[in-house]
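Homework-ish question, so no full write-ups if that breaks the rules, but can someone show me the predicted structure for this set?
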Amino acid sequence: MRSLFGAALALVATIAIAAEIAPEARRSGHDFDSPETRAMQDDGTANPGMLWVSEGEGLWAKKAGTAALSCRDCHSDAQTSMKGAAARYPVFDTAVGRPVDLEQRINLCRTEHQRAEPFAWESEDLLALTVFVAHQSHGLPIAEDDNPELKPFSAWGDELFHRREGQFNLSCSQCHDDNWGKRLAGSVIPQGHPTGYPVYRLEWQSLGSLQRRLRNCMTGVRAAPYDYGASEAVALELYLMERARGMTIETPAVRP
Amino acid sequence: MARVLINLPERAKRGEIIEIKTLLQHPMETGYRLDSNGAKIPRDIVNLFACTYNGEEVFRAELFPAIAANPFIAFSTIATESDELVFSWTDDDGQTRTETRKIIVE
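A: Not a homework solution, just the prediction itself:
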């Protein structure tokens, strides 16, 4: 009886582990794209995300705020100073006592150092600057920050990822861990790795942030989406980066 | 019409076929969408793209609804002379964006 119970427990444990994607089985959304969409992303002259990268390059050098400082005045050349930044964000900010993502870091820089108004979420300026900074990590592996202060937040993100939500009563994990590769209506369900954000989505006909994508999914399961910049959203971003550790940054990615 | 990316070879041999790729940032507003007050957002799409090379028009495209935002147009031409290529996009607002690129033909 006891051994039968033990066997049942072991079986449950196997199922629970099987739900997580093994590191060698992880695949970027790029692998699920059509050949045309992949070609669009891979050709820097056809990738529409590069329009925002070039816009961001201009903003990097533009002085802003009452401090009249540009990003370049402090960080000099983005090619060296911002290399790898997107691969390790969100990071723990001791001043605010919680993790901040790349967009929030840019806005913190604006308010604290440039003494300028923060950019609105999903504004063209914020997207352009974020994608320009993130593009400097193109080709680098995701190596999220190992600051122990982040642990409770990534654990929270893990819990949110596995929590059923909305009228459809679905968790992120039920699609992206258990049913990736299958179809939801006409679209392939990807594994949900944040390797290419901000991403150019053909559906949006525009660039958008990871938070916009998360809100999009939440609306899809008929849950109330997190507000832009909500702690839950950042915790989820943090968990997703941890889940995608070692995968290659491909910003700006193109997705259907 | 905020940003433009144009890709063409810097140098080419005379008589060589060169590929030119252009990407323009434009919302391509369809004219079918409503704003938050229910009023129609007027159509604003790029309706004409043209490229002249060595004073001669080598490519022209009339664009219609159902072409994606940020239109990508690629075409080819024959390298004849070291000269300027002039690209122009015209939208429904009547604005024209013009860009110039040089090519060296040897």
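Now go work out the reasoning yourself. Hint: The beta strands of chain A are 91-93, 98-100, 183-184, 187-188, 199-201, 206-208, 254-255.
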